[in-house]
Amino acid sequence: MDSQKLLPLFPILSLFLFALLAGPRELQVSASPLFSNKFSATKKLFVFGDSYADTGNVKKSIGNSWKHPYGITFPGKPAGRFSDGRVFTDYIAKFLGLKSPMALRWERVAPHHLKEGVNFAYGGTGVFDTSIPGPNMTTQIDSFQNLINRLLFSATDLHSSIALLSVAGNDYATYADRNGSTQGYPALINAVVNQMTANLRRIHGLGVRKIAVTSLEPIGCLPMHTALFSYKQCDHIKNHLAGQHNIMLRTVVDRLNKETNSKSFVYIDLYTNFQQILNGLKAESSKFQALYKPCCIGVSREYSCGSIDENGVKKYFVCDHPEATFFWDSVHPTQEGWNAVYHQLRETNSLTDILT
Q: Per residue, what are the HEC states of the chain?
């Protein structure tokens, strides 16, 4: 998802991994047998997607995620996460008993940086190219394959590891921003899900045997849309769009498991968990004083969280208690919002299939 100024999209790094965007330069990591042997057979997390999963890959020169007040809850300063603190990747890593895999922002890294896996996700990107200049999911997987080809991960590493694919709607937002017609949405949904199917198959073909993919959240409930209703209700038309995407995606996950005679593919239902919290249907809802209104908001429509004017004057407001709001900015949950979603997923055993 977005950081508004950077990513005025749905939920929708400089990076060695995406050097493919600039040309043939590659990440400078020395491959050594000692590295592969030392860390083989250890579980790792490989992350692909957008800002719901990005833990710092967007360039500092581009994104509001590197500006105050992002990161004020964790780690206490801006660190590239699109929240006041932790994001979905952090909670999935916690569930797996791992540290969050490194978001590789440099051309040179030491092999031990890859011990927990790699985060390839880049805020604002999508399955296809979006209005944000960054690596789409295919390019992210290209970078993953490049590391495998350079023997930085063994077959045993891959077989024991987990891939997380997070897609939060930037393809649909880009289409809307380009004045795509309502009649074109069915074809777009079909194209997006078909490409996601190819991506899931490709990662499985590279040797990863557990691949989790998130549904779209109820995009009509994002503050960028609830603002039109004074933060009182969701845009149900946009939620319907997300629902159609999710129906097709869930069908694909079931089909791929049948094709592979396995339980390799896991569908993570963010839509239902967001909805239950936002509709006040779960105990987690009671901790939030604000559900649809974000904690950090621009002083006017032309400004977003983290914006400053030419004189360095901040053009946003921040609430006193981020932990009491579900959304941080116009698109992204707060750390406490993600924590609530995570606990909902744990409570309903929705994540157990990742481990089996």
A: CCCCCCCCCCCCCCCCCCHHHCCCCCCECCCCHHHHHHHCCCCCEEEEECCCCCECCCCCCCCHHHCCCCCCCCCCCCCCECCCCCCHHHHHHHHHCCCCCEECCCCECCHHHHCCEEECCCCCCCCCCCCCCCCCHHHHHHHHHHHHHCCCCCHHHHHCCEEEEECCCHHHHHHHHCCCCHHHHHHHHHHHHHHHHHHHHHHHHCCCCCEEEECCCCHHHCHHHHHHHCCCCCCHHHHHHHHHHHHHHHHHHHHHHHHHCCCCEEEECHHHHHHHHHCCCCHHHHHCCECCCCCEEECCCCCCCCCECCCCCECEEECCCHHHECECCCCCECHHHHHHHHHHHHHCCCCHHHCC
Location of structure tokens 């194209």 = 191
> Tokens 């004045």 sit at which residue?
179
Q: How far is the C-alpha of 321 from the C-alpha of 207, rounded, in Å?
A: 44
- Going from the C-alpha of 186 to that of each of 201, 273, 352, the distances in angstroms are 23, 25, 32
User: In terms of pLDDT, which residue wins out, 78 or 7?
Assistant: 78
Give the span between the Cα atoms of 126 and 48, in whole angstroms. 10
List the domains of the chain with CATH numbers. 19-354 (3.40.50.1110)
Task: Dig out the tokens for 4 from the structure.
Answer: 């508004």
Catalytic residues: 51, 329, 332
pLDDT-derived band of residue 108, with 50, 70 and 90 as boundaries?
low
Residues 62-73: tens digit of each pLDDT: 889 999 999 999
Copy the structure tokens of residue 102: 């490194």
> What's the pLDDT at 24?
33
What is the pTM assigned to this prediction? 0.87
Cα 267–chain centre separation: 15
Question: Distance (Å, rounded) from C-alpha 121 to C-alpha 238?
Answer: 24
Rounded distance between C-alpha atoms, residue 13 and residue 120, angstroms: 7
Q: Provide mean pLDDT across the span 183-188.
A: 93
Q: How far apart are CA 324 and CA 287, in angstroms?
A: 6
pLDDT at 6 over 50: no
